[in-house]
Amino acid sequence: MANEINVTASLAYSNATASILGKLLAWLNKPFTISGVNLVVATFSVPTVSGGGPAALPGLDVLTTVGWAAFVNHDPTNYVDLMTAVAGVAFARLLPGECAVFRLPAAMVAPAALAHTADCLIEYLILEN
What is the DSSP letter of 128? Predict the structure, then answer.
């Protein structure tokens, strides 16, 4: 089957003080074909360093390789870093209430997350590549 997923994204920016009005990058209903059929949808309480350090995202063992992913940080106060692995480096940061959609590299075996100051609740959907 082709075009199993559709991705819709946009980012708009206006700043009257900097004389920047209405810059927009929009990508509407772009279809993509993937070969995998499995997915993981989860809500996870991400720990801080004092709570044990970065934690691997649970449930990904059902995926042969990771692919498209969407993340939401539901914490109203603290940010979450998404990590390449438990002992890896941060590749993305979600500030309070932020979301992100992107493709994870297939070589990323065990992505992890680390909360700042206090545990943060994140939600994610990760598709098999």
Answer: E
Question: Using H for helix, E for strand and C for coil, what is the string for 22-63?
Answer: EEEEEEEEEEECCCCCCEEEEEEEECCCCCCCCEECCCHHHC
Per CATH, the architecture of 34-128 is what? Sandwich (2.60)
Put simply, whether the predicted model's pTM sits higher than 0.70 gets the answer: yes
Nearest to 52 by CA among 1, 119, 109, 101: 119
How many other β-carbons are positioned within 10 Å of the β-carbon of residue 44? 19
**What are the residue ranges of CATH 2.60.120.770 in the chain?**
34-128
Confidence of residue 114 (pLDDT cuts 50, 70, 90): very high
